[in-house]
Structures are given as C-alpha cells and as structure tokens.
Fold this protein.
Amino acid sequence: METLKKIVAKTLAVKEGEIELASSPKNLSSWDSFNSFMIISEIESNFNVKLSSSDIMTIETVKDIVETLRRLNVEEKFLVI
C-alpha cells in the first residue's frame, strides 16, 4: 500500500518533497481537473475506500484529503505528509 504523499506526487508528476498539507491546484500547476479525478481514483483503489460526492466536492488541499481519509479510518501511517 502506498502513502498518500506518494500517490499525490506520482499522479501529479512532482517530487514527494513538493507535497505539503497546503498543496492544492492553486499552488501545483499539474493539479488540474483530470489529475484531481486521478488522485481520487488512486486513493480509492489504494486504500480500498469509496469517497462520496460530497467528500470529493469539499477536497481543495492535501489536508482535506488527509482529514477525509482519517474519517474513513485509513491508517495514520499512510497519511503522513
């Protein structure tokens, strides 16, 4: 199982060191609508969770993703950023 940081970095084609809790489409140019969909898809597959439409609509930053996955009981060791 990959970490959230690795999933986001791989999907956005950036170095893991560039991913922070505040990372978002506003400060990462490769985070466009298509890659948002890809991040969600990778998260659901990797962590075996299903994000609701309302979950997806509220995600604006990596921190939002972490908080959503915590609520879905994903192990903390996979959420370290």
